[in-house]
Amino acid sequence: MKKVIVPFLCLLLWSVNASAQAPFYQGKTITVIVGTPPGNLYDLWARLIAAHMGKYIPGNPEFIVQNMPGAGHVVAVNHLYSVAKPDGLTIIGSVIPSLYLNQLIGRSEIQFDWAKFSWIGSPARGDSQMYMRADTPYKTIEDVRTAKEPPKCGATGLTGPDSYLPKLLQDVVGAKFTIVTGYPGGTDIDLAVERGEVHCRAFTIEAFFGREPYHTWRKKGFVRNLFQTGEKRDARLPDTPTVAELMDQYKTPETGRRLSKVLLAAGDMGRPMFGPPALPADRLKILREAFAKTMNDPKFQDEVKKRDYEFDPVNGEGLAALAKEVTSQPPEVIDRLKKVLGN
User: Where does the chain have alpha helices with state H?
Assistant: First the structure.
């Protein structure tokens, strides 16, 4: 009898021990939520990272991407904050980093606290630009300032760059735009521009130089660029003035410059990946390390280069610090934001 029991007990103990030592992510699937329809650059970035990141997580989990568009990424981020379990199996893959503006001005649809998310990393920082159909009379910002009828700019929500950048230009230099909101994603705005429903769109320089239809548009001279963010002009937009240059030209007062700093800080967060609040520290550490290793993966970097994407990674700790900084604003700045953003 002992000859039967002893091996059985040894096998049982080995099985229990092996189970206890198995990586948490072994045999599991990580869902990566994207706040836009498929094909948007936020979606493409998330899918690219998801295709490489699993091999750097102990247990090699599968990754699936779930598109959850709506309200300029707000639907996806609300879901992550209020519905998703903080177990490390559901994360945001790439999102508009300016969503903290909704929180600062107290919009009722916001169900999240930006600083409480579990920040994983971002593959790039992102300055922005505005394109304008070239066949419109709006050749420069001065033309917009003096126009009898403001140009129409498409936007997905109220606090994405497609919305807040035109509003910022109106506040700091007096360039008036009519903002048409409610488009599901950036590609929908581009189609509206082609149809002539709207004239302009503000979004990242990376996207403008990263994919179609912009390659074809630039070749055909279909659009021109009116302004760009960033401390200096992007080498690809040498003739396009920065917001800072325009503020100097039109002698914007200090209050407007402070507002500009808060609004444009989103560019430093790029295209962040993050999990729900209260993610277990060990799992957040695993995800951050896997993200960092993915950013250093030569095959991943080759793919980024092939796609001509911007590449300037920010780690999770850096994003967490930025999230805390941008959401800690004095009352006077918040009051100005409310006036500009239309709360």
Answer: 2-21, 41-53, 74-82, 100-104, 141-146, 161-173, 186-195, 205-208, 214-220, 243-249, 254-264, 281-295, 298-307, 316-326, 331-341
